[in-house]
Specification:
ABC transporter transmembrane region fold, alpha/beta, Rossmann fold, single chain, elongated, 587 residues
């Protein structure tokens, strides 16, 4: 029942059709069991002295009618697989996609890419296969033995006692199989997810692995999870094999016991020969689904593991949003006494953050790594809600804005650019999918993308490779900026966009950023202080607090302040030269 409830939940909008199919399956199984029961009166009529052939033919007709009825019901039962299986598969994946889209980013960041790939890929395939076929098989495996067991009990209580004893012995064995299989398949699923994640990591980081001699057979990070995956599979198989074998042996012993007790009763004239034959036929039919169920229990538990992982993603509550329909009319950003701690962290990452970014102004965030700068920008995009305080956009609490409404007004340029394995044109168009080619190329020219695109024969139709691997860091960053220019959002967040670039690329990217931020409300995380001297205000963040604020001239005027010390350190670093002793004599 637990598995069936998960199946109904996974079936989603197709739940009514799925439940109807289960009802048809149950009726078909009862008809099948009734067909087996007709063997009892049929054999009685054939073994009578003299044989009552007219009545026997009547029972043959009943048997034929039941067989035909079952066949018709089975055809209708299979209709769900033919008509809805692919629709359920598509719907589950779409609901998973919707759940991931609405999932709080803080929650999403905890889940590895390989784990989610396994859920959306193989787990959905296993779950929908269970919904389409295993569910009907489950009903058959349970209903047929139950009905036949009742028939045996009605024929003779002593034969029924054999069945009841067998059930009493089998129940704990089934529990052991379910427990071990469930744990084993959950372990296998977790190991598969970790392996998928490491495979993605291995492919993306292959150049690094080659350079460090950790590729191929000498890849310890990949080999470790593959070994873990093998161990989980082998352990799951071993742990359940003995109780499964014991269940199958018990089924065979029960059949032999039924026939033996029936023969003893017949010899003692307590049971007629026709009934003994009927009991033998019933016992054989009883044994088949029960023996199959002993093996299939593991398959049901595997399906439950897949269904549970899907349910785990679908059950995550999205960030709450008040249904106010509010829309910002202006685009100033304000943090009002904001405190925030990541899940599982006792110490707050931000504490008492108060500042305002006026509309169409630039605010720079500077400070050491881990001070909370990136967390501030994440809260603006509602990565999570602060534990206290409020973040507003245009005077409206962003927690009352629908995520699509909030992000429609914000463009983000990250330090680590993600490009899709598509053309340059398609990657820029991500900023506004309905943009014309002319608009895309205008944004590209503003971001200095056109300067390198013209060198390639395919121009804007050049594919960039996986994660933009065919491009340099500066080229990827310029495409990211072109994407943001095309979106033309009133708020722009820049997370150290030039930190990893060489001097030449930095100059070109800075020109592109200048085109992007014109007339916008801008928050920039700066690593190189020389790039933000013109900011309207600079916030110095340290240990989750704002320790200084002001324009560059004001902050540099305080020689003992944190900003002035950072400025001097960077100025000295720009004039650093390698000592003569460090220079190679071959230079």
């Amino acid at each position: 029942m637990r598995i069936l409830r998960l199946m109904v939940k996974a079936a989603g909008p197709f739940g009514p059709q799925f439940r109807a199919t289960l009802r048809v399956s149950a009726i078909a199984t009862l008809v099948q069991a009734a067909a087996y029961v007709t063997f009892i009166p049929l054999l009685i009529e054939l073994c009578a002295e003299p044989a009552r052939t007219d009545r026997a033919w009547l029972w043959v007709g009943v048997l034929a009618a039941l067989v035909i009825a079952e066949a018709a019901l089975r055809i209708r039962e299979m209709g769900f697989t033919y008509d809805y299986w692919h629709l359920v598969t598509e719907d589950v994946r779409l609901r998973l996609g919707e759940s991931l889209r609405g999932m709080p980013p803080q929650e999403l960041s905890k889940r590895a890419a390989g784990d989610l790939t396994t859920v959306v890929g193989s787990n959905v395939t296993s779950a929908t296969a269970a919904i389409s076929s295993l569910s009907a098989l489950f009903i058959k495996l349970v209903t047929v033995p139950a009905v036949l067991g009742i028939i045996v009990l009605v024929v003779d209580w002593r034969l029924g006692a054999v069945v009841l004893i067998a059930i009493g012995v089998a129940a704990p064995l089934v529990g052991v199989v379910r427990s071990r299989s469930g744990t084993g398949f959950r372990d296998i699923d977790a190991a598969d997810a970790r392996a998928a994640d490491r495979i993605v990591e291995y492919v993306q980081g292959l150049a690094v692995f080659k350079a460090t001699g950790q590729a191929g057979a000498d890849a310890p990070r990949l080999n470790a999870v593959l070994a873990e995956q093998h161990h989980a599979q082998a352990s799951a198989n071993r742990s359940a094999s003995i109780p499964v074998a014991a269940l199958q042996l018990l089924v065979q012993i029960t059949v032999v016991a039924l026939v033996a007790v029936g023969a003893a009763l017949m010899l003692g004239t307590s049971l007629s020969l026709p009934l003994l034959v009927a009991v033998a036929v019933t016992a054989a039919r009883f044994a088949e689904p029960v023996a199959l169920a002993a093996t299939m229990t593991r398959l049901f538990e595997m399906s439950e593991a897949a269904l549970s992982r899907i349910d785990d993603v679908l059950s995550v509550e999205p960030l709450p949003t008040a249904e106010t329909g509010a829309r910002p009319r202006s685009f100033a950003i304000e943090f009002d006494n904001v405190a925030f701690a990541y899940d599982g962290h006792a110490e707050p990452t931000l504490d008492g953050i108060d500042f305002t970014v006026p509309e169409r102004s630039m605010t720079a965030l500077v400070g050491p790594s881990g001070s909370g700068k990136t967390t501030i920008t994440k809260l603006i995009t509602r990565f999570a809600d602060p534990q206290s305080g409020m973040v507003t956009l245009g005077g409206i609490d962003i927690s009352t804005l629908a995520p699509t409404e909030l992000l429609r007004h914000i463009a983000v340029v990250f330090q680590d650019v993600y490009l899709f394995d598509d053309t340059i044109r398609a990657n820029i168009a991500m900023g506004r999918p309905d943009a014309s080619d002319a608009d895309i190329e205008a944004a590209a020219r503003a971001a200095n993308v056109d300067t390198f695109v013209r060198r390639w024969p395919d121009g804007y139709d050049t594919r960039v490779g996986e994660i933009g691997a065919a491009l340099s860091g500066g080229e990827r960053q310029r495409i990211s900026i072109a994407r943001a220019i095309l979106k033309d959002a009133p708020v722009v967040l820049l997370d150290e966009p030039t930190a990893a670039l060489d001097t030449e690329s930095e100059v070109v990217v800075q020109e592109a950023i200048s085109a992007l931020v014109k007339g916008k409300t801008v928050v920039v995380i700066a690593h190189r202080l020389s790039t933000i001297v013109g900011a309207d205000q600079i916030l110095v963040v340290d240990d989750g607090r704002i320790v200084q604020r002001g324009a560059h001239g004001e902050l540099i005027a305080d020689p003992d302040g944190r900003y002035a010390r950072m400025w001097r350190a960077q100025s000295e670093a720009r004039h650093w030269h390698a000592p003569a002793s460090a220079v190679s004599p071959m230079a």
